[in-house]
Design a protein that fits this description.
Blueprint lengths: L3 E2 L5 E7 L3 E8 L2 E8 L5 H13 L6 E6 L2 H7 L6 E6 L5 H4 L24 E4 L2 E2 L5 E3 L3 H10 L5 E4 L9 H9 L7 E3 H4 L5 H28 L4 E5 L5 E3 H6 L7 H16 L4 E7 L4 E7 L4 E2 L2 E3 L2 E3 L3 E2 L2 E3 L5 E5 L5 E7 L18 H7 L21 H11 L3 H23 L11 E5 L3 H12 L3 E4 L6 H8 L2 E12 L5 H22 L8 E10 L6 E4 L3 H13 L8 E12 L5 E2 L11 E8 L2 E9 L8 E3 L2 E4 L4 E4 L3 E5 L5 E5 L1
Parallel strand pairs: 2-5, 5-12, 6-7, 6-10, 10-11, 14-23, 23-24, 31-33
Antiparallel strand pairs: 1-29, 2-3, 3-4, 8-9, 12-13, 14-15, 15-20, 16-19, 17-18, 21-22, 24-36, 25-28, 26-27, 26-28, 30-31, 32-35, 33-34, 35-36
């Protein structure tokens, strides 16, 4: 176990809620302790509070809780949010339904979109209008404002979105003031996203309102019942935020857990000497991948369940291929895996909880890659015999043997994950050979060698505690806050640079004051300034640093699209100030060098078309200096790593497993 030097004695506990397991990681007295408990889909807080109680039962004193959750995402995907009523300009009630011209099914004669989150009868148009320059074209009707709260009776949450509020927030703030007495969450677009593009701003605000009651209840319960001195929530952009803000603005938590994984993977990658990495997080229900060329990439073009969300998030690509993904034979006789998952209840068949569908995990167990006596570090067992009748039924549909069917399941899942990895690398002009694959999640280590080879890369890393790396990322994450404002100013206009500087000064003051109010020392806050820029006439922007932003934009445009237009004015669309402060300090000590070969044992595994006897080793018995060759299984509490024939394994001074082809 790695030692952690830390100046304060306060315990820090990180919890990541997933579809199958809830991961709990405790930093206590300079040591990391871990626990995985089954998730409780009916009420995710039950698993979180149970895991906290289990890990803290042997210690005393205050602690800080850092939390990443899928509650917001699941509420949106499953359409289990609140009844939202939308207040907007009269005549513009249907923006949320009209959307954009892009077609969700390109070749369908009649495309299908999911219904909007707000029904037509729950959209209320009011008189009043702000113009694109911030001018008042029509004043608000004071009599209408006085009765507005009564018209919104029955709402569980309210969203307020008025035209061009990014240029002048007065009308939206007046509406918000008129609705302050309502006993429901209030989402105001200018407070969440003061940027142009009405559809994206409307959708983002409505989504925030839709999930606010669910998240407010969930996080409120954790805040009250956890007993933590402070509760901090992992944000989708890779930084953490106070629980009070997460309850008001849950839109910032929709990629909470996966963002923690990217931050944790990058921390371990840098420790191992690799800053250019591809993160590969294979959990129970899905696989999340992200490209990090020296740092996380961010995007504002997120779509979850058909709902655009324009807040900043780490650029993560997700596919429905996880350990719990269910295999089936489609009507055409082809083997399919996912996106449906067995989840935590009942889970894979081998968990002996009543599961009937064969999952990726069951295939690994049947082929011997997950030894039945090594589950959760030997603390649990897996039921291999229970898999046979269900796998046999699947194999008969395919006309294959049991082992061939199991291998087919793994191959189909690997193909889906390979496509995802190519989407974020090859399709964006990056050669995977220039990157190191960092694998984590409960199942990441079982597929990492195969996927590294498929991508044409040559090296991979499996960090310590891979099954809890998202929780570790929450420990390592900075505190962050972003402020933005659309200005739409062209370099052809006079005073553009001066106006940009003025807006940056205002935004920087806003984010620093906000973080200071949240308890962060001003001297610890660093602010990064960025400009979303485009050539006049273009529809979308590229983000560049403020310093020499015009020249940098020309260079980036040339790199991305293959040309530059020096004779065309550049437009500064949106100005951003991103503040950050250091999070938890985790300074790891180097592990002692190996003095003897590790202790290994034998196990049987199906590989190369036959059952063979190979070695297996517990990760805790490995040390820097060990150099092992595949085929080999590395066992540990939170994951298992498969080293196939032709691969070798070494350990660095920090405990990372390094996989490379011989």
């Amino acid at each position: 176990m790695n030692e952690v030097k830390k100046g304060k004695s306060l315990r820090v506990l990180a919890v990541d809620t997933g579809g199958t397991f809830t991961d709990v990681l405790l930093l206590d007295g300079g040591r990391l302790r871990s626990l995985k408990v089954p998730s409780t889909p009916g009420d995710p807080a039950d698993a979180v509070l149970g895991g906290i109680e289990e890990l803290l039962k042997d210690g005393d004193g205050d602690y800080v809780l850092l939390h990443g959750s899928t509650v917001a995402t699941n509420a949106l995907l499953e359409r289990k949010g609140a009844r939202v009523k939308l207040v907007t300009n009269a005549g513009f009630e249907d923006i949320i339904e009209i959307g954009r011209q892009n077609r969700p099914q390109l070749y369908a004669l009649v495309g299908h979109r999911p219904p909007p989150l707000v029904s037509r009868t729950d959209r209320h148009g009011i008189r009043g209008r702000i113009g694109p320059e911030g001018e008042v074209l029509e004043p608000l009707d004071t009599d209408e404002l006085e009765t507005l709260a009564e018209q919104l009776a029955g709402a569980e949450s309210v969203a307020v979105v008025l035209l061009h509020s990014y240029a002048n927030p007065d009308h939206e703030e007046a509406v918000a003031s008129a609705l302050e007495g309502l006993p429901v969450p209030l989402s105001v677009s200018v407070r969440l996203l003061p940027e142009y593009r009405e559809y994206e701003r409307t959708s983002t605000t409505v989504v925030n309102a839709y999930i606010a009651p669910v998240m407010s209840g969930y996080l409120g319960r954790l805040d009250q019942e956890s007993g933590a001195e402070r509760v901090t929530i992992m944000g989708s952009s890779g930084g953490s935020l106070p629980v009070e803000r997460a309850m008001r603005e849950p839109i910032h938590t929709v990629l909470s857990g996966p963002a923690g994984g990217v931050v944790g993977a990058l921390a371990w990658g840098r420790r191992a000497g690799h800053e250019h990495i591809i993160t590969f997080d294979m959990g129970g229900t899905s696989t999340d991948v992200s490209l990090c060329p020296g740092g996380p990439l961010h995007t504002r073009e997120l779509d979850i369940g058909g709902q655009p969300i324009a807040v900043p998030v780490i650029d993560i690509h997700t596919v429905g291929a996880g350990g719990g993904s269910l295999a089936r034979v489609d009507p055409g006789g082809a083997l399919r895996v996912g996106p449906r998952s067995a989840g935590a209840d009942p889970g894979p068949i081998c968990y002996a909880k009543g599961g009937e569908g064969v999952t990726v995990t069951d295939a690994h167990v049947w082929l011997g890659r997950l030894p039945v006596d090594a589950f959760l570090g030997g603390g649990g067992t897996l039921d291999r015999a229970a898999i046979e009748p269900h796998l046999r039924s699947l194999a008969e549909e395919l006309g294959a043997t049991l082992e061939s069917a199991a291998e087919g399941i793994l191959a189909v899942a690997a193909s889906a994950m390979e496509r995802a990895l190519r989407v974020i690398s090859v399709e964006r002009g990056h050669d995977p050979a220039d990157f190191t694959l960092v694998a984590f999640g409960g199942a990441g280590g079982l597929h990492v060698a195969d996927l590294t080879e498929r991508l044409g890369a040559s090296r991979a890393i499996v960090p310590p505690l891979p099954g809890l790396l998202s929780a570790y990322g929450m420990l390592a994450a900075d505190l962050t806050r972003e402020a933005s404002r659309s200005i739409l100013l062209s370099t052809a206009s006079s005073g553009t640079e001066e106006r940009i500087r003025e807006v940056f000064t205002e935004l920087e003051r806003t984010v620093v004051d906000a973080m200071s109010e949240e308890g962060v020392r001003r001297e610890d806050i660093t602010v990064v300034r960025q400009v979303d820029a485009r050539y006049e006439g273009q529809s979308f922007e590229l983000r560049v640093p403020e310093k020499e932003w015009q020249a940098t934009f020309h260079d980036l445009h040339d790199e991305r699209y293959g040309y530059r237009r020096l004779d065309t004015p550049v437009e500064a669309v949106t100005i951003r100030a991103i503040a950050s402060a250091p999070g938890q300090k985790l300074e790891l000590e180097r592990l002692p060098r190996a003095t003897a070969p590790p202790e290994t044992s034998a196990t049987r595994l199906f590989s190369g078309g036959e059952w063979v006897e190979i070695s297996r080793v517990w990760r805790e018995d490995l040390a820097p200096g060990h150099d092992l060759e595949g085929p080999l299984l590395v066992l540990e509490y939170s994951s298992t790593t498969w080293i196939p024939h032709g691969w070798r394994l070494t350990l660095d001074d920090w405990g990372n497993l390094h996989l490379a082809q011989k």
